[in-house]
Specification:
Blueprint lengths: L1 H8 L3 E3 L4 E4 L6 E4 L7 E4 L5 H7 E3 L2 H7 L5 E7 L5 E7 L2 E4 L2 H5 L6 H7 L5
This protein binds zinc ion (ZN).
The site of zinc ion (ZN) has 8 residues, from helix 4 and helix 5.
Length: 123
């Protein structure tokens, strides 16, 4: 019966680093901590020994990990400025930058060119 119980809790952890268990000091909840992007921290009912974790752990090689990661988005747009200038607006994985002076003065705040693209006028 013990074997059945263990099997029920046996999950596959695709993790670059070895999984480990830790207990929350505030709630007493046990977690299996993984670097598996699909799992992250998994709430469990008890502490797991390293022998158990080792059975669940699928060692992720470098190449496989890269494939599993979400695609990095990098897009560049050209936007006409009001004085005939052309500015480059870049979306680097959600971080927007613009080559116009207003963006520089705004310390990283969205300038009108970034807002224009976010509003969908150039997509
Ligand atoms: Zn701009």
């Amino acid at each position: 019966m013990i074997i059945e119980h263990l099997t029920k809790h046996l999950m596959v952890i695709n993790s670059l680093l070895p999984p480990t268990t830790l207990q929350s000091p505030s709630t007493g909840q046990w977690y299996i901590v993984t670097t598996d992007p699909k799992l992250g921290w998994v709430a469990v009912d008890r502490k797991y020994s390293w022998e158990e974790l080792d059975k669940m752990w699928r060692r992720v090689t470098y190449g496989v990990t890269i494939k599993a990661e979400p695609k990095r988005i990098k897009e560049t747009y050209k936007v006409d400025g009001s004085k005939g200038n052309v500015y480059n607006v870049t979306n680097d994985n959600g971080v927007w930058t613009c080559s116009c002076p207003a963006h520089g003065f705004g310390r990283g705040k969205d300038c009108k060119h970034i807002k224009e693209i976010k509003n969908g006028k150039h997509i």
